[in-house]
Amino acid sequence: MALIARCYTSGVNLRPNANFCSACGHGVTRRVPPGDSRLRDCCESCGAIHYVNPRPVVGTIPVWGEQVLLCRRAIEPCYGAWTLPAGFMEVGETTAEGACRETAEEALARVELGPLFTLIDVPGVEQVHLFYRARLLDQDFGPGEESLEVKLFAENEIPWEEIGFRTVSTTLRLFFEDRARGSFGTHTRALQPRTPG
Amino acid sequence: MALIARCYTSGVNLRPNANFCSACGHGVTRRVPPGDSRLRDCCESCGAIHYVNPRPVVGTIPVWGEQVLLCRRAIEPCYGAWTLPAGFMEVGETTAEGACRETAEEALARVELGPLFTLIDVPGVEQVHLFYRARLLDQDFGPGEESLEVKLFAENEIPWEEIGFRTVSTTLRLFFEDRARGSFGTHTRALQPRTPG
After folding, report:
1. Euclidean distance between CA atoms B194 and B7, whole angstroms
2. Which of B121, B146, B167, B174 to mutate to test binding with chain A, by most A CBs within 10 Å of its CB?
3. HSE on the CB side for B158, CA within 13 Å?
């Protein structure tokens, strides 16, 4: 349980406030710009306003027959925990392309992408997680650089206590519920920060 | 048509490359960090790596009976064009909260939020647009600071040639198609940059 508790620490992966303007190098002031209602990092020298927005995290639910592919993480946060292949979306790609790229990087797996399955807001860490259903094209997969091992699990084999992120356990539960019902939807959820302690 | 063409200019709203480290103020180098495969702005002084990720844009399709609420923009890009209420998601909020906030700010309107309707990737401007269906709670709406006017439109009154963003026209077309069919889904699309000229 220590493993799981660590993964959910609020503040992990939050970006630090800016001290300097990335455009001109001058110090920034944290204030509400005219016409705005929120604190922003403002450069009093060049006038740049440095907005910060939530980041999309994209991944897949790779399926082979009745089994789902999970990866055991070789990096923090959640080193050693199991997860679906997913990661931060990169500029220049679509959510679908990012989900496939993460699946290739973390599980060395090729998939045929299906529909969007979950959109899960995680406001406490300024992220939006998006998981697509996916069909593995073959069993030629394995651990990428960010994974310790990669393995297919039947529903009754899922290591629920060792799943590294609530967005992943939520997505897996919804997936097995929909599969049991014989009808898959697109689900939206919001995860609020856990109370400390 | 000049209006529309201007709105779709690729590069609008793209963030400039960083020249300085926002943490320590030292100059940054654009290089591929060890274990990575992409160019990042790296600080050689404090070691910070400044990742840039696509930004979520969130909005609603506010409906009153058979009519849809549109806003005419009072700001660039697309000054003077019609749009659904939408804008950049802020940190600390969920996609649903952001969609409601934008609807309140741009159209001074209160809505009951429905399901996610479209997820539209716009890789050319590093954005992911998310629109929720919504029901106006009353007719007490009007132009917020970023709108020139706000108005209800029946389907045959939609000013298609003056819609300011392809994500909005795509969302509206899908909305009317689903409504005609009597069944609403969640749709994912990707818009590629238009070829110049």
Report:
1. 11
2. B121
3. 21
Task: Specify the pLDDT at position A2.
Answer: 39
Q: How many CA atoms lie within 13 A of B133 on its CB side?
A: 18
Task: For residue A56, list chain B residues with Cβ-Cβ distance below 8 A.
Answer: 53-54, 56, 128
Candidates B57, B116, B186, partner chain A, best to mutate (most A CBs within 10 A): B186
Angle (CA) B101-A57-A133 rounded to 5° is 105
Tokens representing residue A52 in the block? 């910060």
Q: Are B119 and B130 in contact (CB under 8 A)?
A: yes
The DSSP output letter for B14 is P
Q: What is the ipTM of this complex?
A: 0.92
**Contact between A20 and B24 using a beta-carbon 8 Å cutoff:** yes
Cα–Cα distance for residue pair B107/B173, rounded to 1 Å? 21
Contact B93 A123 (CB under 8 A): yes
- List the single residue in A with minimal CA-CA distance to B188: A116
**Tens digit of each residue's pLDDT (9 = 90 or more) over B152-195:** 999 999 999 999 999 999 999 999 999 999 999 999 999 988 76
pLDDT tens track, chain A, 197 positions:
334 444 544 445 567 779 999 999 999 999 999 989 999 999 999 999 999 999 999 999 999 999 999 999 999 999 999 999 999 999 999 999 999 999 999 999 999 999 999 999 999 999 999 999 999 999 999 999 999 999 999 999 999 999 999 999 999 999 999 999 999 999 999 998 876 54
Across the interface, whether the CB atoms of B27 and A25 are under 8 A apart is answered yes
Question: Which alpha helices (DSSP H) does chain B contain, by range?
Answer: 2-7, 95-107, 166-181
Tell me the C-alpha distance between B106 and B85, whole Å. Answer: 6
Show residues of chain B in contact with A126, CB under 8 Å.
91-92
Which chain A residues contact residue B130 at CB under 8 A?
A: 119
Contact by Cβ (8 Å): A141, A68: no
Tell me how far the alpha carbon of residue A92 is from its chain's centroid.
18
